[in-house]
């Protein structure tokens, strides 16, 4: 049994654009034609492939077909663009701290590739691999996503930092539990639980302090330096500020290590192989 490439491309368009109507506009066909193609594909597979919601999302049965369609499209683009001497596009998801520090230099090594970058918490980046949105991910997940290879990159080490003024107001002379429970905390977004994990490890209890959300790595570090709250900062970024007295290490000798992995589609793709080598080299220069 073979799968119809037109039906697969139509199914992918429904998921990518979020509805049958939007997919029809993108493909320059009628919504009825889109519906018929998706239903025909579902009959071949014997499973419902897309949840008819707003937006449309693939079912568990549909996700492998989304990945397959993306993989075929990558190999086709790679072959065609090599023949034409033009650019190959690669979609990658990376956690914000890696994107803001060590990851971008890897991309410079592939000048013939255009990149579509996505960001998410390192504990969630692999989700975009599963649904076929991206071809590779910097992730905290060690277990390989189905159809992917996984390589360890190293450890991103964080230390808890705050300004001397915030330290004096909330931490000096106080028990750790009281201090971390009351001092204003910074978080990247609501998925970001690193600060809570660190505070729990130090205090052996859950804390719920006043919290600011700063959803950008550079802005997050600036917020720590300005005294808006305390937060976890990559150790090599915090070290000069701590040495100069601009920041205080709130728990000397304590840190939080986040192992990072590179997961990418299991394809014989020259572009993915070169990107993997570049990411590996860039990570080796920064991660522990």
From TrEMBL:
<dbReference type="InterPro" id="IPR036388">
    <property type="entry name" value="WH-like_DNA-bd_sf"/>
</dbReference>
<dbReference type="GO" id="GO:0003700">
    <property type="term" value="F:DNA-binding transcription factor activity"/>
</dbReference>
<keyword id="KW-0804">Transcription</keyword>
<protein>
    <recommendedName>
        <fullName>HTH-type transcriptional regulator LysG</fullName>
    </recommendedName>
</protein>
<feature type="domain" description="HTH lysR-type">
    <location>
        <begin position="1"/>
        <end position="59"/>
    </location>
</feature>
<dbReference type="InterPro" id="IPR050176">
    <property type="entry name" value="LTTR"/>
</dbReference>
<keyword id="KW-0238">DNA-binding</keyword>
<dbReference type="GO" id="GO:0003677">
    <property type="term" value="F:DNA binding"/>
</dbReference>
<dbReference type="Pfam" id="PF00126">
    <property type="entry name" value="HTH_1"/>
</dbReference>
<comment type="similarity">
    <text>Belongs to the LysR transcriptional regulatory family.</text>
</comment>
<keyword id="KW-0010">Activator</keyword>
<keyword id="KW-0678">Repressor</keyword>
<dbReference type="InterPro" id="IPR005119">
    <property type="entry name" value="LysR_subst-bd"/>
</dbReference>
<dbReference type="InterPro" id="IPR000847">
    <property type="entry name" value="LysR_HTH_N"/>
</dbReference>
<keyword id="KW-0805">Transcription regulation</keyword>
<dbReference type="InterPro" id="IPR017685">
    <property type="entry name" value="ArgP"/>
</dbReference>
<dbReference type="Pfam" id="PF03466">
    <property type="entry name" value="LysR_substrate"/>
</dbReference>
<dbReference type="InterPro" id="IPR036390">
    <property type="entry name" value="WH_DNA-bd_sf"/>
</dbReference>
């Amino acid at each position: 049994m073979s799968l119809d490439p037109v039906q697969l491309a139509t199914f992918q368009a429904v998921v990518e654009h979020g509805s049958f109507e939007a997919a029809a506009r993108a493909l320059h066909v009628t919504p009825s034609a889109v519906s018929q193609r998706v239903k025909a594909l579902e009959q071949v597979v014997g499973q419902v492939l897309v949840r008819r919601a707003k937006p449309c999302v693939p079912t568990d049965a549909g996700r492998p077909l989304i990945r397959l369609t993306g993989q075929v499209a990558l190999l086709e683009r790679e072959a065609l663009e090599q023949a034409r001497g033009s650019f190959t596009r690669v979609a990658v998801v990376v956690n914000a701290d890696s994107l803001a520090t060590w990851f971008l230099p890897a991309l410079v090594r592939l000048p013939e590739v255009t990149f579509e970058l996505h960001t998410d918490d390192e504990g969630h980046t692999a989700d975009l691999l599963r649904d076929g949105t991206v071809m590779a991910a910097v992730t905290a997940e060690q277990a390989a996503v189905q159809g992917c290879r996984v390589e360890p990159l190293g450890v991103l080490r964080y230390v808890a930092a705050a300004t001397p003024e915030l330290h004096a107001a909330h931490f000096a002379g106080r028990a750790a539990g009281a201090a971390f429970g009351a001092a204003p905390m910074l978080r990247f977004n609501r998925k970001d639980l690193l600060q809570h994990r660190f505070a729990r490890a130090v205090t052996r209890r859950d804390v719920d302090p006043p919290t600011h959300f700063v959803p950008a790595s550079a802005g997050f570090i600036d917020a720590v330096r300005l005294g808006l709250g305390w937060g976890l900062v990559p150790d090599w970024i915090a070290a000069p500020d701590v040495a100069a007295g601009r920041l205080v290490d709130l728990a000397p000798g304590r840190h939080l290590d986040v192992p990072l992995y590179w997961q990418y589609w299991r394809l014989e793709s020259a572009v993915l192989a070169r990107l993997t080598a570049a990411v590996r080299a860039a990570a080796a220069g920064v991660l522990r």
